[in-house]
Amino acid sequence: MSKRPSIVIAAAGLQGLEGLAAVGFGLFSGVETALGEAVDPTSAVAVTVLALGGGLAMLACARMLLNADTRSRAPIVLTQLFALPIAWSLWQSHQPAYAIPLGVVAVLALVLVLSPPVTAWLAPEDGDDDDSEDAGQKAGSGS
Q1: Which of 5, 51, 53, 133 could be joined to 117 by an S-S link, Cβ 3.0–4.6 Å?
Q2: What is the pLDDT of residues 80-108, one digit of tens each?
Q3: Which residues, 6+ apart, have CB-to-CB distance to 89 below 8 Å?
Q4: What average pLDDT does this structure show over 109-127?
Q5: pLDDT for the residue numbered 20
Q6: How many other C-beta atoms lie within 10 A of the C-beta of residue 120?
Q7: Do 9 and 112 form a contact (C-beta atoms < 8 A)?
Q8: CA-CA distance, 87 to 97, in Å (whole number)?
Q9: pLDDT of 39 over the 80 cut
């Protein structure tokens, strides 16, 4: 496999940053719940589990992207598409300190993960070899 493009590293870094933020929020929510400071403990447990699970999944997708796993792109794109309405909701609730960074990271990650260098990174390199092997097998089987 060739050298990893810097755009791939940047896209994976942004996805990883979001994953770490989600895990951090999940840990914070879990500690608050354990200390009895949650307003609604049932909802707090659910938020904790979802944040931890989602954050770990985002971190796994970032790693998959770095390893050129083609299965990483769709979940990363979906993560960013879900982050945009969340950023908008935060903006409307007068929380620009959270809304602006989330929106900027989501747009940047979308642009990067859908860029041609990332597409080339995720494209299978052995596609031409399979075609030539199939052609050779077809030619050999016709004899």
Answers
A1: 5
A2: 999 999 999 999 999 999 999 999 999 99
A3: none
A4: 88
A5: 97
A6: 13
A7: no
A8: 10
A9: yes
User: Which are the contacts of 13, defined by CB distance < 8 A and separation ≥ 6?
Assistant: 62
Give the helix/strand (H/E) hosting 7.
Answer: helix 6-34
Q: pTM score, two decimals?
A: 0.81
Task: Name the amino acid, one letter, at 15.
Answer: Q
Quickly list DSSP for 47-108. Answer: HHHHHHHHHHHHHHHHHHHHTT-GGGHHHHHHHHHHHHHHHHHHHHTT-HHHHHHHHHHHHH
CA distance linking residue 96 with residue 43, whole number of Å: 25
The one-letter code for the residue type at 111 is V
What letter represents residue 125's amino acid? Answer: E
3-state class of 37 per DSSP? coil
The residue whose two tokens read 């990483």 is: 72
Tell me the residue length of the chain: 143
Residue 52: how many other CB atoms lie within 10 Å: 18
Residue indicated by tokens 């659910």:
46
